[in-house]
Write a structure and sequence with these properties.
Layout (H helix, E strand, L loop, with lengths): L1 H21 L13 H7 L18 E4 L5 E3 H5 L5 E6 L4 H14 L6 E6 L4 H11 L5 E3 L3 H6 L7 E5 L5 E3 L9 H12 L3
Parallel strand pairs: 3-4, 4-5
Antiparallel strand pairs: 1-2, 1-5, 3-6, 6-7
Length: 194
């Protein structure tokens, strides 16, 4: 009789354990916080994802801040025309002065595609900063692969021009883009016309 009770208790413990393990957990998943409101306020241009993956950026993953979806960086910038990638962070003061300049350049007819990449920053903070600065060009957030692929220097901001053939060149002169003319000259010098 004692043996029967022991097996009954063991069975109940197993059933309880399985029930607890399989019981649905409400509202807590791996997607992180809901950033729909922040994305709407930021009103970012969509991230392109249909370009051609050329050069060393192929296979480099980043998350589009406009949608929260992961995409290939090379496809986001590789449309056969020069593009400018600007790495920035929410805590970087020079970045905060450069990004509005890039936004003005991006609105010009014939401008190269400008793609921002937030590094070492949280998505919500990045979206709030973009909203505050009135910056709407496409932006991504890096989980570390963009910084690694570009061999980014320690100081931010850091800009790179991607030529039509996928060649990536660091913009070292001028290091900080202070005017639309600086941006235009950097794109011409490091990647071709625009």
């Amino acid at each position: 009789m004692k043996n029967r009770w022991r097996w009954a208790i063991v069975g109940l413990v197993i059933v309880a354990g399985v029930t607890i393990a399989l019981w649905p957990r409400g509202g807590n998943d791996d997607r992180g916080p809901d950033l729909t409101a922040e994305r709407t306020k930021a009103a970012l241009q969509p991230c392109a994802a249909g370009g051609t993956a050329k050069g060393r950026l192929g296979g480099v993953a980043a998350t589009c801040l406009a949608t929260g979806t992961e995409l290939d960086l090379a496809k986001a910038v590789g449309d056969g025309k020069p593009a400018l990638i600007n790495l920035w962070a929410t805590w970087c003061e020079p970045c905060k002065s450069e990004m509005p300049v890039l936004a003005r350049y991006a609105r010009e007819p014939g401008a190269a595609r400008v793609v921002g990449v937030a590094v070492k920053s949280e998505q919500a903070d990045a979206l709030q900063l973009l909203t505050a600065l009135d910056v709407h060009y496409p932006n991504l957030i890096d989980g570390g692969s963009v910084v690694a692929a570009l061999h980014t220097p320690d100081a931010l901001p850091a800009s790179y021009v991607v030529a039509a053939d996928g060649t990536v060149r660091f913009v070292g002169d001028p290091r900080l883009l202070r005017s639309v003319d600086d941006v235009r000259a950097a794109v011409a010098k490091y990647g071709g016309a625009a």
